[in-house]
User: What shape does this take?
Amino acid sequence: MYVSYLIDLENLKDSDLILGLINKQTSAINYFVNNYQKFVYVLCVRMLNNVEVAEEITQDVLIKCIEKIEQFKGDSKLKTWVYTVAKRETLNYLRINKIETTELSDVISNKIQNDDSFDGNELSTVLNYYFKKLPFDAKEMLTLFYLEEMSLKEIAETTQLSESNVRVKLYRARESFKSVLTEKDVTLINQLRHG
Assistant: This one.
């Protein structure tokens, strides 16, 4: 049965939003999409390394969450559930498809060997190139911590891991990122430290 009521968007609690989504209330759906779209997109684009596919999966995740909101049991935060749906959809896509990445290693090696300095766009491209080489778990932790600017506690709540486990995974992710930067990448490393 459809129930109509007004949602106080300024003091909105997860329970009110969930009720609004269950009742397919337009304001609740708009609020949900506006507040979770960027979170899901950033996670997907970082895990998939493909903007177009990330946009499609983001839409799929948001629609799936809205359609299946009754399945949310409430034993975690809504953001944790959305994150779980997004991660599952992303992993399913990765399992089914192979995404080609642009090989930039020759261009990067030439710039480094010639000791050219990178401009902002080139540095971003190089960092993205190395980020793509990381394992999924490392990308996930670095994305949540640095791009989503979540605290260790928030990451723990979202991923349903302990804070100490998050701390260890984040440390390993940083170490993985360092390890993909080879010793000859001195120019890049120096720019990261001093840039």
Q: What stands out?
A: The domain at 9-96 is CATH 1.10.1740.10 (Rna Polymerase Sigma Factor; Chain: A). The radius of gyration is 20 Å.
